[in-house]
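Encode chain A's predicted structure.
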Amino acid sequence: MQSRDYPLVGPEWAPSPDEPPRRPQRWLGFAGAGTLIAVGYMDPGNWATAIAGGARYGYTLLSVVLLSSMMALLLQWLAARVGLVTGRDLAQLSRSQYSRRTSLALWALCEIAIIACDLAEIIGSAVALQLLFGLSLPVGVLLAGALAFAMLGLQGFGQRRLEGAVAALILLTAGCFAAQLALANPDWGAALAGMRPRSEIVAQAGMLWLATGILGATVMPHNLYLHSALLRMRGEAMPERTPATMARALRATQWDTTLSLGFAFLINAALLILAAAVFHASGNTGVESLGDAHKMLTPLLGNQWAGVMFAVALLACGLNSTVTATLAGQVTMEGFLNLRMKPWQRALITRGLALIPALLIVGHGGEAQTTNLLIFSQVVLSLQLPFAVVPLVRFAGDAKLMGQWRVRGLLLALAWVIAAAIVALNGVLLWQTMTGQG
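Encoded structure for chain A:
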């Protein structure tokens, strides 16, 4: 049964014959959503898993980064397609399609994922502030919470201003990594070989733990909710919904998603390649903390700016990912609970829930525990992922919801295979954890 809160948008969108023609849709208006989504794929949680994976196992886990990015690309495209076609985002559809108890459970799980993600951003930003300015971690945690509001304040100048600032920070991050890779001079042949999946990744508990963390850091569940909401809002601004205009909008969305997530993959791969080329190759396989990585980059690369570039890129990623988690929290709360909040109120709630464990960890465990916390937060994201992916794939293939734009055939089968793989990977991880093999 469909909810009466959101009108169903079926396959017939042609305007009335009496309706006067309107100006053509400016398809560039669909660009930008992918930029905000890509931010979530290069947050500090990615740094922790990539550095630990590259230092410990060299280029082996590059295959996980590649496969995770390919999964993310398809799933994000499905989320955008569902939001644009149905006129409802993933949270709204879940509330209308499932019972109240089920939708509330899905919302609670998504909130846990958002808090875990926000926790990684706070810790990562605090570490970056410590590396750059010598601030203590507790002070850095509090300052990172304040910076969240500064980033969100850009929304007051328009969504495009916010997207422009995010894009600028992404380019800054890319520039830092390009320079560091040039100094590291990786073994590109070994890196290419690392793109090939290996069975040992699943067989070894420690490698699987990091692989699951990479998956959680790459395919983020709350990003699926956010992407569908961003395209829902862009779809609402379309002057008409004819099959021709919808086809053009979907093509523009596909290009935006592909280019943005392709760029995010390059950043994630660069992280792991840098760790493999600098730390694993020099025998420093135990490097896991961001602080240790920062300290060792300068002497190992022989450049005084290597550590500075590392910290600047980390801070840029932390600030950027703040936007994603807060906006995702806002759309999921509105969608699941039909409760609207101002961005600063939502940021206050999310950051407040994440600040408490962050302060406890850095206050008692110090820097030694920050990396473990970052990796654990990404595993939490991975464990929550099936509860977002399964409804998404189901909605994308539903003819009643999607009409002529439903996903079908090989593409739908591939989406279900990805969902099954995510469930299986998490199942193996839980089994290894419960049996003491993790």
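Residues 1-25 have pLDDT under 50 and may be disordered.
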